[in-house]
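haha ok so turns out i had the wrong file open the whole time. this is the CORRECT one, sorry everyone. sequence first:
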Amino acid sequence: MSDFRIVKDQHQDETMRFVIVDDSEEILQIWKRVFAREKNCIVFLTSDPWLALREIELQKPDILITDVMMPGLSGFQLAKKAKLVYPRLKIFFTTGSLDRLKESGLLEEFLEVLQKPYTDLNNVQTFIHDLATQKPLDRSHCTQEGNFFLWSL
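then structure:
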């Protein structure tokens, strides 16, 4: 998949902006399907973390969802650089390996983690819809383990 942007006709003040980064084509296709149903968002999907960082610098999105392990720049490195550029950015990590999180050196921070594989696309859709409409997140699919909020969607 080349980089992909979904833009909906919305009022700017109601629109949530997302940047999604994952080196897996399959995962990006899932995100593309999920966001195709949303009306209150603009989303930029890419497998290139450097391109994602440029998008963050230019567009100042509300939410970054990034894979942890990616070639060239890890999700943790991307998150640190993105926060320097835009400190208000809300970040969610995705991973299939919690061990990678514990090795991250970010244990003093609370991290929101979407665990792979995603098991129920309806739960993923609801999660994204709640983010896009700025509703409180339903934490029934979330557990806390130390400084990690682990989402099983």
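Residues 51 and 150 are 27 Å apart (CA to CA).
again sry for the mixup
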